[in-house]
Specification:
Elements lengths: L1 H15 L3 H8 L4 H6 L6 H10 L2 H10 L2 H10 L2 H10 L2 H9 L3 H10 L2 H11 L6 H4 L4 E5 L4 H11 L9 E8 L5 E6 H6 L6 H4 L13 H11 L3 E5 L5 E6 H19 L11 H28 L1 H6 L7 H25 L7 H35 L1 H31 L4 H29 L1
Parallel strand pairs: 1-2
Antiparallel strand pairs: 2-3, 4-5
């Protein structure tokens, strides 16, 4: 973005004066990613001009980075021949993802532009559900014969791969198939390049790669990529035929979107709310705030029931916010770890018990340390007036609060998942409320028994 800011004024001036030669030179210095970040600085005509003036590979990268409405705007601004060329150069999966998000009249318009073969390829992707691996897989990859030598394979790659489509073609991992297009294995391009020229592809390939099915949910694919640290994975049909390939770049994007959504849900919101009207944002946030409000009213009733204790020892009120805040913090941290572990597959069903035990142990250790520290602070402030019992009540309640928060934060996501409720949606508000309830109850019950 900093690079774009340096050239922004000059670029806009060159475009407005129609000095396209100088504008093309200027665009060579700007990354497509920076252009996307500053896309709103340009009007519709300038955006189309930027796309047309960019080098071929940069233009393709720019188009892929843009959101669907911006992609449609560019296509509508191009001449029919140029738009057709762009759609044909795109990976069919990218075109399919774009068409899913467009209104019907634009889908018909762009489908009519595509060549017949391109239409058929895109339709193959559109037949799969939006959140499935089939909708995510790429259709541009290179296949090899296991009987080829390394030298022959490299030459075939050079002959069969068009430079203009290099950004759209997956080359990091090459697919080895038989005469019926069934997967035999995979081989990395690096291995192929450095191998002896007469070495056979079958001796270089991995014959048992991790594979996916087109019906698999994208979240499950994210878990597999995370667990096995995959860079790519072939997608096979029921007969072992090769349909496409899923690459890490696309999986990373899915994981990022899921993480944003989960974190938003944990605070009772939703990802992507900023573009919504205020009333709709309020409507989304309202339900979980109601749950929190009801819980905190129960906390208030506990405090009201101990008015006599609080009136006699006003110093108790000093530590209520601290105990509640520290417990809520530990609960949120624990819940975040558990929700993320469940989402990415780091915590399997067999490991759930171990994960819960570990998080509770962590909560107890942190609670013991902070309980001791806060107890010593309470003794320093009020020990001469109320004695060690007061410090003990404060310190022990801190320990209970943080332990309870860790326990709730580790168990609640698992319970909600078994009930079919998204853990990210329900966990956050309830943990804070539960921790406040328990810590307040313990705090005043102990104070009433030990200090009065």
């Amino acid at each position: 973005m900093k690079t774009l800011q340096i050239y922004l004024a000059d670029l806009k001036e060159l475009l407005q004066s129609r000095d396209f030669v100088s504008a093309r030179t200027c665009l060579r210095e700007i990354s497509p990613v920076d252009l996307v970040d500053g896309w709103d600085y340009f009007d519709a005509d300038e955006r189309v001009a930027i796309f047309r003036l960019s080098a071929r590979q940069k233009a393709m990268q720019l188009f892929e980075e843009l959101d669907t409405p911006a992609q449609a705007e560019i296509l509508q601004g191009l001449q029919r021949k140029d738009a057709q060329e762009l759609l044909n150069d795109l990976d069919p999966s990218e075109t399919g993802r774009m068409l899913r998000d467009l209104p019907p009249h634009l889908v018909r318009q762009f489908s009519a532009i595509m060549k017949k073969g391109g239409q058929e390829c895109v339709q193959q992707y559109l037949q799969y559900p939006q959140q499935s691996v089939g909708a995510l897989m790429r259709g541009r990859y290179v296949t090899l014969d296991e009987k080829w030598t390394a030298k022959t394979a490299v030459e075939r790659i050079q002959y069969s791969t068009r430079l203009r489509r290099i950004e759209e073609t997956h080359l990091d991992t090459l697919m080895v198939v038989d005469s019926r297009d069934r997967l035999r294995g995979v081989v990395g391009l690096k291995s192929l390049v450095v191998a002896p020229k007469d070495m056979l592809v079958r001796d270089l390939m991995d014959p048992s790669p991790r594979t996916l099915t087109p019906q698999l949910d994208q979240e499950e694919a994210v878990k597999l990529f995370t667990k096995y640290r995959l860079k790519s994975a072939p997608v096979l049909n029921e007969d072992g035929g090769l349909l496409g390939v899923v690459v890490y770049r696309d999986i990373f994007e899915i994981a990022r979107e899921e993480t944003e959504e989960d974190f938003a849900k944990m605070v009772g919101a939703q990802a992507g709310l900023l573009s919504w009207p205020a009333w709709r944002i309020a409507k989304v946030r309202f339900p979980w705030l109601v749950a929190t409000c009801i819980g905190e009213l129960m906390v208030s009733s506990i405090i009201k029931g101990h008015e006599e204790t609080l009136a006699k020892i006003v110093a108790l009120a000093t530590f209520i916010p601290l105990i509640a805040a520290m417990g809520g913090n530990v609960g949120s941290q624990t819940a975040t770890v558990m929700v993320r572990g469940l989402a990415t597959g780091e915590i399997s069903e067999e490991e759930e018990g171990e994960a819960v035990t570990k998080e509770i142990a962590v909560g107890m250790m942190i609670g013991a340390v902070y309980g001791l520290l806060i107890g010593l602070c309470a003794q320093f402030f009020y020990g001469d007036r109320y004695g060690w019992q007061f410090s003990g009540v404060v310190g022990f309640t801190m320990f209970i609060s943080m332990t309870a928060a860790a326990t709730a934060g580790s168990i609640e996501p698992l319970v909600f998942r078994r009930l079919g409720i998204d853990p990210a949606t329900a966990t956050g508000p309830l943990i804070t409320t539960f921790t406040d309830l328990l810590s307040t109850l313990v705090y005043f019950t102990l104070a009433a028994k030990l200090l009065l």
